[in-house]
Here is the input.
Amino acid sequence: MLEARGVRAGYADVEAIHGIDVHVDPGEIVALLGANGAGKSTLLRSLAGLVPLRAGSVRFDGGELGGLPVETIARRGLTLVPEGRRVFPGLTVYANLEVAATRWARWRDRLDADVERVLDLFPALRARLHQRAWSLSGGEQQMLALGRGLMAHPRLLLLDEPSLGLAPRLVRDVFAAIAEINRRGTPILLVEQNATAALAVAHRGYVMSRGHIVLTGTGRELLGDRRVREAYLGA
Here is the structure.
């Protein structure tokens, strides 16, 4: 479905990722793990077209994405939910979802059906639908960010640090939602510092260090790997 080969990307004169190979197959959750500065977010941003490729190729359903505008990549079904939630604080929950709707979903009946699907997945937002986003808790804002990503009908969802700054109970809720999104048919490429939570839901994973992939395996294999446990799980 998604295949990145030899991807190099960075900022100004600094290259952040060096010849990365990753792939996501239909139906998968794939986790990207690594310390701060490993290049995980840069990889997601390069896949979404926000950071230009310096080398390599990104193919999605057989079509090349490298060099395409961000909006074209998004229309092809690659949706990035960035780190830090990035909701519109002055807009209501409903308006945040409406803004993210695809062009064809802005017909009122289709829009409301899409909003209802989000509320079914995140019932805590139902009572907040007409509140401003700034009034939501951190966990509710993360649910809104995920819901906004789903409004675009993604064929592949890129999630950047969805548990960042959340209390443990909310982390469990967010990862339960991620597993359910995947169960309903959306493949996910997940960048996450919480290795335990990420690998518990991931079918496969990659571990990055200093812009390189240094380990790969199934979620179970990586959870049991001594190097992963020592570096990320405190063992």
Q: What stands out?
A: The beta strands are 2-11, 14-24, 29-33, 53-60, 63-64, 78-81, 156-160, 188-191, 204-209, 212-218. The chain has one domain: 2-232.
